[in-house]
Design goal:
Blueprint (H helix, E strand, L loop, with lengths): L1 H26 L4 H26 L4 H18 L7 H21 L17 H14 L3 H24 L4 E5 L6 E7 L1 H11 L8 H15 L10 H27 L1
Antiparallel strand pairs: 1-2
Helix pairs in contact: 1-2, 1-4, 2-3, 2-5, 3-4, 5-6, 5-9, 6-7, 6-8, 6-9, 7-8, 8-9
Length: 260
């Protein structure tokens, strides 16, 4: 609970910065400098709201569920490209919401968690997806947990690939017989990205089968099966544990490479 309170405080600090940026844009009649400052503040605020929402959704509490819906509405308002003046009422509402959320968070008692996410996994989209997968698991939504697990690991691999290779994860797809170009930029896919991560020693070879497990189960959960696909608690639990191990290894090794 301490972590979510800390993240919410950061969110409201970014709200204050966004409010200041809006006032400057309005005062100086959409000067490009202040518009750029506003867009930067808005992006950071949106990311912070998503992080807080992901953590709030993991907690079973009636009062907090109501606050979650309210915060989701504020997020929708900031995601829309409306005039700057229209953000003022939303900001004012969020400022009033601050105290209510703090009181609710401080009164919530959290049940012990089955999964612990290592601090080595940063607060990125991949982690948010993982948090949502755990939330789905806790609520008995085992198929959607599998899909989010695949999305989490694949998203982390894509970002790592772009950061290291300095290009999008695509390749030219040619006909095996005539060598004609079928597709100039074909997406590599999670399996090839997983192999790439192993070849770069970003993921330990002992976790090789884990990556393919996550890929297959995530795909099976996302698409209508040709045969019955199990809504199984233990399979979802194993998949979440696998993604935690994969992401932990990936981010630890990325950090080591950055230090070199």
């Amino acid at each position: 609970m301490e972590q979510i309170i800390k993240e919410s405080e950061r969110m409201f600090k970014l709200l204050d910065e966004t409010k200041t940026a809006v006032e400057k844009v309005v005062k100086y009649k959409s000067h490009p400098k202040y518009v750029a400052e506003y867009e930067k503040s808005r992006r950071e605020l949106i990311a912070a709201i998503k992080i807080v929402l992901a953590k709030m959704r993991m907690i079973e509490n009636e009062d907090l569920a109501s606050k979650t819906k309210t915060l989701e509405q504020y997020l929708k308002e900031f995601l829309t490209e409306k005039r700057y003046e229209s953000k003022r009422p939303v900001i004012a509402q969020m400022e009033m919401f601050r105290t209510d959320l703090k009181i609710t968070l401080e009164g919530v008692k959290i049940k012990p968690r089955i999964f612990e996410i290592p601090v080595s996994i940063p607060m990125t989209e991949a982690r948010i997806d993982l948090e949502e997968a755990i939330s789905d698991y806790d609520n008995g939504c085992f198929i959607s947990a599998l899909v989010l697990c695949r999305r989490s690991y694949e998203g982390a691999l894509v970002e790592a690939y772009k950061d290291i290779e300095k290009r999008e994860p695509v390749k030219e797809l040619n006909c095996k017989n005539c060598k004609a170009i079928i597709r100039k930029e074909a997406y590599l896919g999670i399996a090839n990205l997983h192999d790439w991560a192993i070849s770069k020693r970003l993921v330990n070879d002992r976790l090789k089968s884990f990556g393919f497990l996550v890929s297959e189960l995530g795909s099976g959960g996302a698409h209508p099966p040709m045969k019955e696909f199990p809504r199984d608690r233990e399979i979802a639990k194993l998949t979440i544990a696998s993604v935690i191990a994969l992401l932990n290894d990936l981010y630890l090794n990325l950090a080591k490479q950055e230090k070199k």
